[in-house]
Every structure is written in structure tokens, then in C-alpha cells.
Amino acid sequence: MIDEKNVKKTMNPISILIFLGFTTLSASADVTLSGLFTDHMVLQREMPVAVYGKADPGDVVTVAFAGQEKAATTDKAGYWSVRLDALKTSKIAATLTVSGKNKVTLNDVLVGDVWVCSGQSNMEWSLRDCNRPDDIKDADFPLLRQFFVPCGLGNTPRAEGTYNGNAWTTCSPQSVGNFTAVGFYFARKISSETGVPIGLIKSAWGGTRIQPWIPYSSMSSVPQLANEKQYLDSQVKAYVEALAAAEPRMSAYIAETKKALSSNGELPVPPELKSYPIGDAGAWGSIYNGMIHSLVRFPIKGVIWYQGEANGDEGDSYYHEMRALVGGWRNAWNQPPTPGSGAPSGEFPFYYVQLASFQNPNNNPQGGDGWARVRMAQNKALSIPNTGMAVAIDLADVGNPGDIHPKNKRDVGERLALWALAKNYGKKDLVYSGPLYKEIKVEGTKIRVFFDNVGSGLTVATKKGYDPVVKEPQGKLQKFAIAGEDKKWVWADAVIEGKVIVVSSPEVPNPVAVRYAFSMNPDGCNLYNNEGLPAAPFRTDDW
């Protein structure tokens, strides 16, 4: 180590100035990039892209990529950001450079579509756990990349993420085992049919409820969540008041907090607080703060979401939580729509999975047990603009319905990809969904059930594991139930007539309502369209 005092004694004034200049330069901060920017990354095409990081306050930082060169001056805290003009799709690896006092070079950068893959364990589930060795062996897809966000909580929305030094990974037989399985199959299908590079940001956490993924500020946008917000606010107030009694110096913070609460604003949380009510994996906003907010400056194509098992005791409340989730994330990203999407500003596509069958079959025609009601809430969430739902009711493991992690993530990912291909990649004639309940018409002793997304027609079919769907034209539809005004449910006779299902039972002479596959595990439900996509479970009543 250099002894600065002794060196100065032996140097003339000019030498001292030169020496101090070098020591000052060496002590200054190098230009750095946010942790999302690494080799092998994918940048979002067809929209402006922010590139950002830190350096010394007042430094000029220049970013060069794809023929563009943009410069910015860091703010007082040392943060900088430049905005690249909309980028064209590029499958040829390019170099991105950032220059300040030093130079940072990112290699093998592609321009394509970036999808956030989020939810709980079935999205977190890695390809290596799916028992698909051939898919791993053949996974030489250099246009597919993944970035992994580690699990973490936040008391307040984190503007920057450290990501534990994680980097973008190119899809290969050696790396793909760590990819989200649903995301991998989703990306593989899209890229193979379009040639567009796909970047996946895996930000999922097993066993989590939907609430901590929702930005706290978006709760006030959904009136039906007023009780939940009021409860959380009361917890915060009680905590702040208890803290104030012990820490009088924080009176200014208390006043600020009460003001924020009264205006439905974000809660200000000072660094002195080591414990805080929302810093918990079960509380509102804590996972959003720790795992999503740091991503929102990074443009994306959209989101795929697989979650709900942990909220399986809910019904309509889950629908309202989905509204807050989707709306909150879109507001946070605040990005322009993809050209040609037809979506209003900020409404990027949000595609999600309806829960698969689970546990032992229920042979009660009334149903309503377990996850049946949360599936109805997922149906209802299709009313949120620019959303889509992949039905997975037929994808439980054969012979092992008690496994909450069905191994067949291929069909899940590819069913999600159908929505994206049809809605976002120009595949206009593609049948992207199975039958979705539309309406009923009572005709004496029968009820006619009408559907959207029937494709070329309805059929009876079965599916086992990864095997293709097998049509059974002479088969009998199962898991339809019917009831009259007395609300007594019985199994019904259901017959396909063109693109309509006719439901009846001699036990119900004056029917008023129909349910299909409305149970935790409606084993044997077998309504599909001719394109091999299953009908979503539904109910026509609100009893």
C-alpha cells in the first residue's frame, strides 16, 4: 500500500498535483449498469429502451448500440439513464457499450421480445424436474434467453435490484434445466414459429398468495378491495403509533405516513425501520416491492402468470385481486403499447393459467369444493382487457392427482403461447383457446349451452400425460350437472349439437342452471374443441 504522506515529502508541487490527480481518478466510481444488463441479454424490440446505471455525480455516460449513440449526465446521487430509440428485431448478436470514466462492454445482445414469467411454484418449476430428458438434450436454442430474479421481500418498492449477481443465460442443453419449464415451452413455440428471439425474466416464488405480488398503491383502484386496504392501513397506523411512543424523534415520519394513508398514496418507510408490517411474504405488496418493481424500467412484451393454488379458498375476491395485480403492474411499467397490438397505452398482454385438477375426484354433482371457485374467478378475469387464459384442467399427472406440481408443463406453456401467437404475433386464423362458456337458453326440460372459441366444432375427447388428445366421437360427455329452482344438483345428460351442448335430466323437469367440471378434481371431464383444446370449467348460476 502506498504511504501517501511519505510520497508527498519527496515530491515537488507539480508532481504532487499529478499524484493527487491520479489518486482522485482511481478513487472515483466506475460507470456501472443495472444488474439486468449483462452479456447474452435480450432487449425489447419496437419500443424505446432505457439503459441505466450509476457513476459519479455529474459524469457524462454514453451508450452505443445498433447504430445509436446516446449520452446522459448523472444526477446528484450518481444515477444515469439513456433512452434508445425503438429497436428492430435482431437475431444477430451485437455489442452494447457504455462509456464514462471506464468502458463496459456487453456481448451477445439480441433484440426480440421479453416476457416476465411470474407466480408461484408451478411457474418457478424448472425444466429439469419435468422428466423430459429429450427436451433438455435437444434444447439448443440460442435465440432463447433467461434472467433469474432471486426471491426477496421489500418494505418499499425497490428501484434497483442486485439480483445476487445473476446474469442472462443462453438456452442450451447445459443451461436449460434451470429455465422455468412453462416459460421454456412458451418461448420455444413462439420463437420456432416466428423466428423472434425471446427473453424470459423468471420472477416467481413457490407457495405465495397473490396479495404480496400486488402493488400496495393499486389496491385503491379496486373498490372491492377496500376492506383489505383498510385493514392493512389500520395495522400500519397501529405500528406507527407504537413506534412513536418509543421513538418520539420520528414525529415527522408519522405525520408523513398519516398523510400518505389519507390520500391512498405509497407509504414512506425510513431506513430506521427494521421491521414493518408489509415486510412479510403474506402481506400486500412485499413481493412486488422486492421482485417486480426493480424491473419496471425495463421494457417488456408481456407477462405470463401461473398462480392461484395458495388462494384456492377464494372466489370472486381473487378476480378483484387479479384486477389489482394486472392494473398495478401495467401502471408501474407505464410503457407504450406494442405497435399493431390494438391495446391502449400500457396494457401489455397478460396471459395466465387456470388451475389444473388436484387431489381425489369429487363425484358430488353440486361440486364447489377446493379450487372450483378460484377457477371461476380466473374465468371472470378474462374480462380484464388484453388477457388470456390457458386451461389446464386435464393436465394433472396420470395416477398421481395429489401432486400439486403436474409434470406436464409443455402443454401449459404451449397453450399460453397460442394466445400470444394469435393476439401478438399475427397468427389470425389460429384457434388459441378451448370452449369458453358464453350463455344459456332454457328450452322447456332442456338447457342449451353456447360457447365462444369452439373452433371448428365440439367433441368428446381424452388426454393422458404428454400424449396427444384423443377424440372419442361416440363417447359420452361427463361432469355436466343440472339443477332447478330448488338448487338440487344432479348429473345431467349432455349431448353435442353442432356448436352447442344440450343438457337435461329426467330428475329436473324445469332446469335453470348448469355446471361443468365445477370441483377440485373433475376427473373425467371431456369436452374439447376439434383443435384439441379443453373447455374451461364453468357455472351458469351464482348461488
Q: How would you characterize this protein structure?
A:
By secondary structure, the protein is α+β, with helices and mostly antiparallel strands. It folds into three domains: 111-215 and 285-433, Rossmann fold (3-Layer(aba) Sandwich); 221-279, no CATH class; 436-539, no CATH class. It has eleven helices and 25 strands. The strands form five sheets. Strands 2, 4, 5, 7, 8, 9, 10, 11, 12, 13 and 14 form an eleven-stranded mixed beta sheet that branches. It has a four-stranded antiparallel beta sheet with strand order 15-16-22-21, with no helix packed on it. The protein is globular, with a radius of gyration of 27 Å. The N and C termini lie far apart (78 Å).
Helix content: 10-25%
CATH class of the largest domain: Alpha Beta
Find the structural class using helix and strand composition.
alpha+beta
Radius of gyration, CA atoms, in whole angstroms = 27 Å
Stated plainly, the CATH topology of the largest domain is called Rossmann fold
From the spread of the alpha carbons, the general shape counts as globular
For the report, how would you describe the main beta sheet?
A: 11 strands, mixed
- The unreliable regions are 1-26, 269-279
Oligomerization: single chain
Which key terms come to mind for this protein?
single chain, 543 residues, alpha+beta, Rossmann fold, 3 domains, eleven-stranded mixed beta sheet, four-stranded antiparallel beta sheet, 25 strands, disordered N terminus
